[in-house]
Amino acid sequence: MKRQDIQCDSQGQLRHFLTIEGHKRETLTQILDTAENFVTVGNQPVKKVPLLRGKTIVNLFFESSTRTRTTFELAAKRLSADVLNINISTSSTSKGESLLDMLRNLESMHCDMFVVRHEQSGAAHFIAQHVAPHISVINAGDGRHAHPTQAMLDMFTIRKHKPDFTALRVAIVGDLMHSRVARSQIHALNVLGVPEIRAIGPRTLIPPYLEQMGVHVYHDLRQGLEDVDVVIMLRLQRERMDGALLPSELEYFQTYGLTQEKLAQAKPDAIVMHPGPINRGVEIESSVADGPQSVILEQVSNGIAVRMAIMSVVLGRKPGSEEGEA
Amino acid sequence: MRIHIKGGRLIDPANGIDGRHDLYIADGQVVAIDQSPDGFGADQVIDASDQIVIPGLVDLNARLREPGQEHKATIASETRAAAAGGITTLCVQPDTDPIIDTPAVAELIHHRARQAGFARVVTLGALTLQLQGEHLSEMEELIREGGCIAVSNALNPLNNTLVYRRALEYAANYDLTVFIYANDPWLSNKGCAHEGAISTRLGLPGIPESAETVAVARDLMLIEQTGVRAHFMHLSCAQSIQKIARARHDNLPVSIDVAAHQLYLTEMDLGDFNSACHVIPPLRTQRDKDGLRAGLGNGTINAISSAHQPHDADAKLAPFCETEPGISALETLLPLTLRLSEEKVMPLSDAIARITSEPAAILGIDGGRLGVGDRADICIFDPNERWTVDYNTLASCGKNTPFLGWEMQGRVSHTLLAGQPVYQVNQ
User: How far from A10 is each of A21, A22, A111, A268, B333, CA to CA, in Å?
Assistant: First the structure.
């Protein structure tokens, strides 16, 4: 498929981070390596590096989020950037100012980066296509399409425990239909060379032709978990119960909820992940979420280092490089 | 005004003509072919050597945005664009604002079109009041007083099948053709792209094939039961065409059109959320595109329409699903149709029939033919001239076309409406 790469500038440097799709393995590895250097920053008495001093980063959130916005904010602040948080309910934009008008206004305040979350798939691409040339866009989640920074922090967490991606079997379980996280994870796992990716869920929550993204689809949890190294559980949003997608939380838990007993199908040293927030007793049993195989809290703390890495790579600064232009 | 069209290749599919013929036009009609009538003093001689002369195009489905959305386009602007595209008759949907469910609205549209003078505009009346699918409209009055030529519920759903059945029966009572948009609104839900590999990859809410095929199946049953004459508008799925072909085989009085863009574009063209490709029904798969082309080739599909939907720039400047669906298409209808013969989908004369005589027959109007005594609605084009679809040279107010930058072959040089020149290239 011919598509111009909107994510890179004319020199092939990363300019926007909108989706994992289309990135080379080296780019993802570079981000993961860079993140390694940032992990320690959080443990220092002064939790700051001056890499992005003088830069202004705008968190532009059209959809509510606590965790993602907070980690982006912390990441930016630890890089010494100035951070502006703007939360806009989409209803207010639809009534008045258009999205583009709002962007123009923010651009004229000389910002360097927009971190965007929006309920519509393609919103980050749209914004990236229309921002002034000096601005970079990071996608913090657009509709069902992509959540690439979450996928990168998941890859970072996996690599901590299972350093060789090319020897892994990874299962993603739950509502893949509505999950931007799952889509980005699938791309990332494929780019990093994972030989077997499984998508597990009921037919109502598996989008059509998902196989074409490079996964094997399973509708039986036990079968799908057999001998996997990594189990990624997806959040089941409560509003999904309103439609005809699932009959009840109870039935979902009984068939697709991760329990100790079902987890026993996976390899004994398999790790369990979840992008959060967790619905205990719906997609995962508490004893698994809090158990020895769970790396869920690690994911959260890794989120800051990985987002620092992405921001610094996109704005052209690596740790250890001298402070550049003001 | 007397016009002599000299030396052109006349293609008049309705009369089985394809050859070099001179046409003599007077009093808005074709008065003679080849033999100049006695004392015919032409006011204008159009040299059509190296050009093709065909009946003015009849477009089954165009939105002109007036009344109601004049910030997008007007009847004057879009009929002018139609003339530039060789189209002399346009059929508009009743979903204007106000809706065409009273004769006054239809009269207003006809009046504005006559005032502008670039193309004939015919109207579909609303099948149900306010297109809400609950009460029947006063169809008989819409036809008799308003001059509507058929009825339709536009893109609005008829969820209540009893109302639907009654509406079809009532239309059959007055021998009206019902124009149908086959869509199950529950299945299409809030989708904005074909449900398939691309919508899955892009995370766009999908419109499954079944949204169309389920509706086609239901509609065919009701058509059979009520005996109404029906036309399926801008179908998008190969499966729908096959179903209708079978029904047609059983002598059901149904016809079909497809939008020209469906014959060239697929879901793949969405690329990275290209809003110019946001259209309803959505761009489908390669298999569907091939199926639609096959349906044209074997005659199952009667007509090609523009499905013209001009938009202001802002309408397409948003995340994909929030943009307004539709393609500005009047000026690409002819070249895209000609290209089908280039690509061996069907012979040139058949392709031209799909945009002239066949749609005229579906509408039950005069037009789409150029025999002696027929109205002189004529399109003359240079089949060899190449041109690039360009934002600045499109006559339509809507620049929203995914074909921007495409090279087209075949360009209109003259359009005559009832014997009057309404468009001439390089004017």
Answer: 18, 16, 21, 47, 37
